[in-house]
Amino acid sequence: MKVRAIRIAAAAAAVVLSTGLLASCGSSDPEPSSVSADDVAGNIRFSWWGSESRNARTNAVIDLFQKKFPVKVEGEPVDYLKYFERLNVQAAGGNMPCVTQMLTFGLNDYASKDLFLDLSDSKLLDLSTVDKGVVDSLRADDGALYMAPYGIAPSVIAYNTAMADKYGIDIPGNSMTWGEFFSWMRQAQQKLPKGVFAMDFPYNTPVEVITYLGSRGPVFTAGKPAFRAEDLAGWFSTWHELMDEGVVLPAERITDYTGSHEDSAMAAGVAFASARPANALGAIANGLKSHGLAPDVGYTLLPVADDGKATDLLPINGLSIPKSCDNVASAMAFINFWINDASANEAFAADNGAPTVAAYRGKLQDAPETGASTKDMIKVASEVVDRGSLAVDLPPKFQTTFLDAYRRVAISAFTGATSAEAAAEEIISRMR
Amino acid sequence: MKTSYSTTAALFHPRPRAGKAARHLLICLLLIFLLYPLAVLLLASFSDGGVIGSPGGLTLENYRAGWQGDGGSGFGRYFVNSSLISLASIVGTLLSCSLAAYTFARIDFPGRRVLFALMIGTLLLPKQVTVVPQYVMFNTLGMVDTYWPLTITHYFAVDAFYTFLMVQFIRGISPSLDEAARIDGCGHFGIFFRIIVPLSFPALATTAAFCFIHSWNDFLGPLLYLNDPGSFTVPLGLRQFMDSTGNSNTGGLLAMSVLSLVPLIAFFAVAQRLITEGISTTGLK
Asked: Does residue B61 belong to the interface with chain A, where contact is any CB pair within 8 Å?
């Protein structure tokens, strides 16, 4: 009897579990176009990456939203490095939050698995206010939009203003070519004291390498690499030469500095310049201050192609709605509030990139309480949007193939441990 | 000849006092080497901005700001949450693993060896393999964003290491005590609670210590299963001070890291004798 009872209990447990799983798999996708304002109610979960200061600002926006709508927003903050680790497990379990923060590099990794709703056609989400170029740069091949953009964070060449003044380093304009940039670094190194390097390695983000490849031709086409192997090899060999010449931070010192902007070689006063996202200018200034150095950070835009054409890859932070969301109307209303509401933009204060609505960029730029580094970031974003960004069709698994491979191979290639040609081939073959 | 022999012996057998001093010196050097990171952590936690030698000098500000925590929760709440989870995990582990260990060590039932081998085999299973299926299961059961996924598994003797540790200990207790108890009318539960548990105190203390350290330091479990910042544990709370894409509170992180070590050190200090006894009697290295 006992054995039979155990078998029945085990079978019942299996049925309950499998029914639940099948139910979650078999549910039909919600239609963003069919939701209405009357449906905005209930609870939604919202996950984002950030630390204390960003969490406080995000919570302020949530409070404003909750005062206006009968919706309870359950915030789920975590830091950037762990955010995607958790999101991957949530995605596998069909339990992603209704409003999921996303960024350009990771978007296609999730969208290609059919996890997100197409936000192009929704009554509750107005994206006509957002820069058209920004929205279009996020569209998939079929025109679908899987992320509503709210923060633009273009990369710049940040530099230490105090060092530039002290050692008489001239700052080039925003239209320097890549060749002029490398020459500038070599000239700066001649003026810098021993122990300070003109640059640190650009291995942490793909923005610089893709902007460089874009200046030489198409980068990706139809989800496949379209750049030439010799161009990528040229990128690696140039940085290797600069390291040999003592212009960039030596390889053995890379691990002295963590990936965070506040602990970077530039923030420690060891590197004069660094390619960093514009929304990191404030963090670098804080890092300089904590090292007892003047917190003055200047910037110049990323170099352009030889013909003067700008090819910036534009990193954009946005909000997506998973297909597993059971309250699409409230999620839409929340995203719309986040992007289009004046009080929300004021409360968030461009903490994770410049607003995608030009009017709010102008408002924050004019507000006396906006910090200097935030104003710089907003100015950069406007300049980059105005000069035209590179509408790169990032392939599916971009983050898990190109970016991971690049980070792994880059240091090896920069230091000469792997030949530039072999490193380029490895990345291309990994993507294939 | 005699003198010559004594000289040779003295060369090969230096005076005990000198040898002892050399050993102590070596141990002291090793101790300095081991404590160096902790000393740096401690000093940095009292330094302005968490940077040793910063112009601001020494300050308690890191502890004040860190204790306030994120989002108004206060770091004290994370300590309470971690303590609750650790306590529930210890109770579950001690109850379930000791019962499972008694079963394997004392009861002769069909398939015992195979089941024991299977249990030991689970030690070889990487945790990453079970992360997603376990998450799917707890999500289906509606237990995500509760403490259940972090505690309930401990009540099913799933920690093979602890069960194995106690099996080894119980096997060292003379079976004649069980037989005497059985003659006096005890069943399995009577033998377990009246004979085995009181004699297994060192092994139970060792298990409790390891379980506490594991629960207190666990990061992945709370990261996946706890969404509400109000329910965060200490490791998740510490992570809130850092973000590679924005501003970090390094001083607060270091100060709260120091405080997060206090319960571990206190637990070890209180249970030190039992833990070392348990380790020495279970054959654990």
From this structure: no
